Amino acid sequence: MSLLSVRNLVIDYARTRALDGADLEVTQGETVGLVGESGSGKSTLGSAAGRLLPQSARRGEGEVLVAGEPVFELPATRLRHLRRRHLGFVFQDPIASLDPTMRVGAQLGLVLGRGGDVSFHLGRVRLDDPRVVRSYPHQLSGGMAQRVAIAMAMATAPDLLIADEPTAALDSQVREEVSNMVFSLAAEAGTSILWLSHDLPAVARRCDRVAVMYGGRVVESGPARQVLGNPAHPYTAALAGSAPAAAAHGVRLEPVPGRPPVLTGPAEGCAFAPRCPFAEERCEHERPAPVRIREQDVLCHRAADLEGTLAQRRSAPEVSA
């Protein structure tokens, strides 16, 4: 069953196009990593799933379905019900995601409703100190605040948790612990995860599937082992080869040449063409349609030609068996 279905979604911010016909599926019980450079559209897509976009955002076309419900067509009351029943969110900045005027216990109590056990849910994220309940967000460390945000997001056992770089603002010592906490609680509750991240090795270790974004579109998606270990899109191969966290000692990183595009409208051809070493003339003026290569869905005119030539880079992230 598909929990989240994004189809040909176009989102503009004033004169900047953030999503240029994005497609994504997340099914019941799976974990999906959404990766790509800054500006690729990851956060916009994640926010669109709950209709949490800023007022400056405009949907040009496409749709988002959550548990079969058309998110952008729902009235406010039904949208609130859908968010409460089906969705949980954990954002990058834990302090900013919490209400600075309310104590932690009061905020979690609003999520749980009357009779909810605040101490139990804080205990699940290893915040057993009773002082946490009485604290304001600014009185907590970043790691503690993020655990509170996780407790709030998972308190209602949502069908889908959308986590947007949830460990990026944390010290390296607590990142792994917080990540373990999220995936453990989700597995316990049967919650699917959409994990937005720049950390390719972490995504490779934890996610069932990976979707790679570039220029506001998902250019490759499929099983994590295939997408990150044997990519079918030139951008995926370049991204894996430039990941610092995955580089072996003494291996020279190969940065992706050029800069990501800043779109002002629909890309005329393939958005990656100016940076792609395999681009040909049609890539500049013909938008690629999805093709199936092995177990991956790929947006590339030359995907079939390049099969087997996009060798796994020595610095590509390891994918656990």
Share of helix, binned: 25-40%
Strand content: 15-25%
How far from one another are the termini?
A: 25 Å
Largest sheet: 8 strands, mixed
Total count of strands: 12
Structural class: alpha/beta
How many helices?
Answer: 12
Poorly predicted ranges (pLDDT <50, ≥5 residues)?
312-316
Mean pLDDT: 91
Note the run of SSEs as H and E: EEEHEEHEHHHHHEHEHEEHHEEH
Shape: globular
CA-atom Rg in angstroms: 20 Å
The oligomeric state of the chains shown is: single chain
Query: Going across the major beta sheet, what is the strand order?
Result: 6-7-8-3-9-10-12-11
Keywords: ATP-binding, Cell membrane, Ion transport, Membrane, Nickel, Nickel transport, Nucleotide-binding, Translocase, Transport
Family: Belongs to the ABC transporter superfamily.
Pfam families: ABC_tran, oligo_HPY
Protein name: Nickel import system ATP-binding protein NikD
Task: Please write out the topology.
Elements (H helix, E strand, L loop, with lengths): L1 E12 L2 E12 L3 E5 L6 H7 L8 E10 L2 E2 L5 H11 E4 L3 H4 L6 H9 L5 H7 L6 H4 L7 H13 L5 E5 L7 H18 L2 E6 L2 H7 L2 E6 L2 E7 H6 L4 H8 L48 E4 L2 E4 L3 H4 L15
Parallel strand pairs: 3-8, 3-9, 6-7, 7-8
Antiparallel strand pairs: 1-2, 1-4, 4-5, 9-10, 10-12, 11-12
Helix pairs in contact: 7-8
